[in-house]
Amino acid sequence: MRAPFLLLLLAAAAPCGGQVAGEARLLGSADSTIPAGPLGVSSCRGRALLLATRDSLPGHVGNRLRCTSCHLEAGRRASGTWVGVFARYPQYRPRSNSVETIDYRVSDCFRRSMNGTPLASETYGTTDADNSVVVVLRHGGIPIGMDTPMWAKYKFGEFFKIHDGVTNAPAVRNPFSKVKAGELPIPGMALDELSAKGVLFGICNVALTVHSGIFAKSMGLRADAVRQDWVASLLPGVQIVPSGVIAVNRTQERGCAYCFAG
Question: Percentages helix, strand, coil for the chain, rounded to the nearest 5?
Answer without folding.
Answer: 45, 10, 45
